[in-house]
């Protein structure tokens, strides 16, 4: 009967979209683990390569710089190419970038590989968001974004701790070999499940004109402030827990696990709020983040309450990420393809600035005072969220295009 055919077609289309999103989730999970695993095995890398721990920490900076700068550049250079081809090539090159330093064992090569791997990660993120939103129903754009992003959140909560544990048992090289193995699985999933998606027909100059419009830059500023506020505290959360809360050893890991699990839940659930009203979600979430950071200052000496606050902070902070991505692409309109790469860059800059702000606070005041620094930045973020609520994209964004630009509501 023809009456039932639309439902069957809808289920088939939804099932196909779910499979594509699952492949993209696995890809971002691998890339998130690749980025942060270095932190968990930093001492092992330093000892094996004969460099200091601060020098080994430069591997984290190298990745962040590669992502922040190289991600948008690679996105611009590949803007006309088939999206599936770009995803496959990016993942394949990431496998090489992860494997080469492990085999060669050269610190300078490791730094170069991290810069390139960071740039490829930025490229994959942008294209994955574009593909994910192109296969999803328009009303589920935010949820598609949240699935892609949640790969990073789950990697923080699960992939990095497991990789760190493996590194302690078999060495950092063994942990990186394990990442390569999972990356190969992700590559096979993308090859098998992701369909061909044409690149945009617009030129880079036209994309950039819309992607860097003042309305887009305003939301990118909000995104930068959110991550600066968050990481002015999270960068130093372990010494905060040890000196202010009074927990140590395995209990610190438990607190981090609680926060990590909450970030995973927030990233997955945040897409629904983005679909409902992304602009209002940002106001509520930035206000909630401010409250959480102030609460850490007020109840920092109570372990049970701190665990609850860290969980709440993880929920609201990552819960707003889909809305931030949604708003950037929405406001970029026809420049959505290039704009997909910009939130990750802004986030990494925010993390760097937040870490510097927190470090300066510790140097001049105390570890406990980092929460006030974070809350102060968060208050500014609330004001920017309110100011950007009524911003709308250009009329050309009213109709979604194959490049992943979403409709203006």
Structural commentary:
This protein is an all-alpha fold and 409 residues long. The chain has two domains: 1-199, MFS general substrate transporter like domains (Growth Hormone, Chain: A); 203-409, Up-down Bundle (Growth Hormone, Chain: A). Helix content is 82%, strand content 0%. The protein has 16 helices and no strands. The chain has helices at 5-40, 42-49, 53-77, 83-104, 107-135, 141-170, 172-193, 204-211, 214-234, 237-245, 250-299, 303-319, 321-332, 336-339, 342-364, 370-387. The protein starts with a helix and ends in a 22-residue tail after the last helix.
Helix/strand class? mainly alpha
Strand tally: 0
Principal-axis shape: globular
Give the helix proportion (percent range). Answer: over 70%
Low-confidence stretches: 1-6, 396-409
Write out the CATH superfamily name of the largest domain: MFS general substrate transporter like domains
Tell me the number of structural domains. 2
CATH architecture of the largest domain: Up-down Bundle
Q: Remind me, CATH topology of the largest domain?
A: Growth Hormone, Chain: A
Rg computed from alpha carbons, rounded to a whole number of angstroms: 21 Å
> What characterizes the major β-sheet?
none
Mean pLDDT, rounded to whole units?
A: 85
Helical region count?
16
Topology order in helix (H) and strand (E) letters: HHHHHHHHHHHHHHHH
Main CATH class of the largest domain: Mainly Alpha
- N→C terminal distance: 36 Å
- Beta content comes to under 5%
Main location: membrane
GO molecular function, one term: transmembrane transporter activity
GO cellular component, one term: plasma membrane
Pfam family, one: MFS_1
